[in-house]
Amino acid sequence: MEDEGKVIVAGFASKKIPQITGEELLENSFSILGVNLEQYRKKNFKVYREAVTDVIEMCEDKLISPHPAIHFSLEKVNEALAVLQDRNSISKIVLDIK
Predict the structure, then answer these.
(1) What is the pLDDT of residues 19-30, one digit of tens each?
(2) What is the pTM of this model?
(3) Could you say which DSSP state residue 73 is in?
(4) Cβ–Cβ under 8 Å, residues 89 and 65
């Protein structure tokens, strides 16, 4: 990871918020910003839509790479539910019902 930059936190699939120390931020001159997109969706949909569009474009341009979804077959629904219950996922959980 390069020195200097901004980390924008826009949510956690596991609902567990990682802990970070000031020392970790200062070491490489990072700043961190938390964003609650749900608030923008409810109160200023235009800003929300622009943010979503920007993220999609950054993915297409390979500037960011989100964690891929975890897929479970319908036969493994109990495993999928266990992952949800344990909050061990760092991405979306998809149940394939084909």
Answers:
(1) 788 887 778 787
(2) 0.49
(3) E
(4) no
